[in-house]
Amino acid sequence: MRGTEGIGRRARRSRAGAVLLALFLGLALPLSGVAEAASPGPGPGPGPGTTVATHQPGDDDRIPANAAPARGAAKAISVTGSPSPSATPGSTVSYLTSTISSISPTVVTATSVNLLTVVGTVTNTWSKKIYDVKYQFRRNNALATVKDIKTEISTPATPGGIGPASWTRLGPTAIAPTTAVDLGPGESLTFVAAVELSSPTGLAIGSAGVYPVSLQIDGDIGQNGNVDYVTVGSMHLLTTVLAVPGVTTGAGSTTANGAGSASLTPNRLNMLWPLVDTPHVGVQGVFLDDDLARLVSPGGRLYKVLAELGRTDVGSGSTTVVVDPELLDELSQMSKGYLVAKTKGAAQPALTAAVTESATSTSVPASAIAGGTAADSSRATATTTTRGAATSASARTEPLRATSGGSSTASTTSASSAGRVTTTTTNTTPTTTTPSLPIQTATVPGTGQAAATTFLATLRAAVANRQVLVLPYSNPDAVAMVRAGLTSQLSGLITKGRTVAAKVLGLGAAVASGPGLVTTMTAPEDGYVDQATLDFMSANGMTGAVLTPRTLEYSGDAAGAVSIGMTGGTRTVRAAVTDADLLTEVNDLVAKGTTAGLPVRLTTLAALLTGAAQDGTGTPIVIWPTDRWSPNAAGVQVLAGLLRTLAGGNVVAGTSLPAIAAASTTRATVSYPDSAGRAELDPGYVARWSQVEAGLSSLSKSLSKAKGLDTPDPSAQLSPLVTALTPLLSSSLRDGAGVSSQVLDTAGATIGSLRAAVQITGTDATTYTLAAATSPLLLTVRNDTPYVVRIRVRVQGKNVGMTTTDPGVLSVAAGRSQQFRIESKVVKAGKFPVEAQLIAADGSAWGPPKTITVQSSAYGTLTLIIIAVAGGALFLMVVIRLFGRIRGRNRDVDGRPGNLRPGQTSTDDPVGPTPVDDQPADQSSTDNSATGENQR
Length: 936
Description:
Elements: H1 16-25, E1 78-81, E2 93-104, E3 107-108, E4 115-124, E5 131-139, H2 146-154, E6 168-169, E7 188-196, E8 209-220, E9 229-241, E10 267-275, H3 291-295, H4 301-308, E11 319-323, H5 325-335, E12 339-341, H6 366-369, H7 374-378, E13 408-415, E14 421-428, E15 443-445, H8 449-463, E16 467-470, H9 478-483, H10 487-505, E17 516-518, E18 521-522, H11 531-539, E19 544-547, E20 552-553, E21 561-565, E22 572-577, H12 580-592, H13 598-614, E23 621-623, H14 633-648, E24 652-654, H15 657-662, E25 666-670, H16 674-678, H17 683-702, E26 703-704, H18 714-725, H19 740-756, E27 758-760, E28 767-770, E29 776-783, E30 788-796, E31 802-804, E32 810-812, E33 817-826, E34 830-840, E35 850-856, H20 861-893, H21 920-935
Parallel strand pairs: 3-9, 10-11, 10-23, 10-24, 11-16, 16-17, 18-19, 19-22, 21-25, 28-35
Antiparallel strand pairs: 1-2, 2-4, 4-7, 5-6, 5-8, 8-9, 12-15, 13-14, 20-25, 21-22, 26-30, 27-29, 29-33, 30-32, 30-34, 31-33, 34-35
């Protein structure tokens, strides 16, 4: 059923003869029109042309009947009327607003009272008085299908013609007042309106079905002595009849009135019960807030979810608990005692190295337990004896149990079948256990140890005989992860979720419809998924899914289960499909409880649930409240009562979720809407997470423990960061809230500090000299970490004519320097810049490149060419000179006088005096020498 809605004012129905008669007698003679069953319109009230005098008001409070009425203020449920013929054509006038506080019965059964009763309040929002307010019930034919019901909800049909022939004065009780009831401007009236269900003079319902029923309200709006009856309000309802009171189901026939069939095919019903929250734990198992303690304590959201579990059961398998294993992990940690960051919202400091193995064991300083400063904690020198390797079910670092001066409260729990929490408390004093790494955050003891212990005990009891759908660890945004290429990480979350759930709940895998863990069905956030993600989930063992119809495309009417082929055609995923319209009604009912509008919410939901059963399809119904819902206890109780009533009428039957999915016969394809993509985790945030995760992975492959008993292990520094990073792609972090940025800040700071401790030595002014073209470049790497670092040095100098040979990965001892000999080859001399960069063992960049200056005295190719050309030219010149000399000597031998200058003949005067020598041979030699000198 729905709340009242405004409709147009009905045609004027005044009779002049009746007015004259009333004036003559001095009496009010209200006359009722006759409703015609075959009429498509409402047809209530006095017939056309009939005037009815209901009172004799004074002229001072009457206005002309055709005066334009004022529009009333909008209320929660507005009731409008149709303007009378005297009103402005096409105008819409608001006369009344109304609320419905009760509709009885919600669902009509064979044992129900044969009377439909509506209790509510109407208020005159018009500026003038409305006289003689009356009501009449009308109904239409029964709605045959769910589709018809949904259409009636969205667009109510014109009130039908089946109903009582007479009008009844509206009053505060089911007994009609003997005198007229008027409503002045702003006045309200609490009313009770009733009509017989199966009586021929009532609604004449003869068989089961969902019937549109209209409660129409008429009043006299005439002024200045005029009488003008119009419809001042109309309330549209849906009445679900499972059996006619006093009549055997299916007996009787009202075919002429369109009564529905009494034969019902029960809907297979399953209601998901999410136990999901957002991550709260930071680095080293320190909770960054203590909000979870409040959530699992009496009055908290998760406490209420668990307390109400089981109320809506309508048979075995009708409820499936949906759990996030990360929540179970946090609760398990809390139950052992835990620490909370002293400053909420602040990032934890970067982790520093600590000893993880020693022959002795000491305790953590009290400052780290009871709220000491971060500086005190970071100076802690506690060591622990090495523990055994953690199992895969407990990847989170074991927390430090809180210690305080007083005692805390532990509890034992007994749980009813409905999951209600009952607690017996005892005083206990938690113990303190030294962690693998000293807590480096200022902390205080957590307050939720007892509440978490109680909650877990109650949960284990509540799910012992139920199916539990296990989400991947932290309920990640699977589509965003697959889109970002983080498939290996998503696969790890699936595996970890199964392991943690089995360990904490103590359950095995569900077999068929029996109790246990359902680990082969995926339930993505809000039921949306794309094909790539569904392909991936299928490849990781998911044979089923729970999806919204808004992410599916298929032909035919609404389906409660579909089959989806995977890419390549080798696998099929069978999905249970939620009903979007039905889910809205359920969420409203559960969230709002008994607040205003409950009767309408309840009867509307009853009609929707009954529709699929009466049309013979038996469409599966999967109800999935939002993951982080907060049930209203009163709302759950009302829903439970409705479901039990419907189950008793063969409308619904509890069925396990895998069974609903397995029965799918409709083929469908996946369609991922843009709105779902916009709701994903921010791509920038996912990229930042990926960068930090890759940085930790790179460090783990590059750092190793140095030799010695008391040397620290890098895993003690890195593993807490990896663990804290794991749940940070949770769908619950889509809005950017939570611990995500704080953990990423801590991890980023730790990565930065470790990388900064390993650097190439030297400043920007340092110059590296190469004595030859193939001289090695000697670079020194300083390691100031307490770990052995496996690293490479890459030099990029091709743009300046320098090539190098990678020396490979070398180990740099803790606290030491290591010289890297990098074979290089240069092709020019001079001073030029090149880039040197440290590369981690996995091939990723350790840090940004560092520019260094290289000076080379080697000759490059061009220089060598120039030298060779110059040398060749010089050699050629020497050859030419020598050739000239040899040629000159050869000419002297041929007979030319040696004492003649070039160009002289023998007849010319000799040059200078001829020397006298007693030795002719010597003279000849002197002459040759002189001749050569002259030639030069």
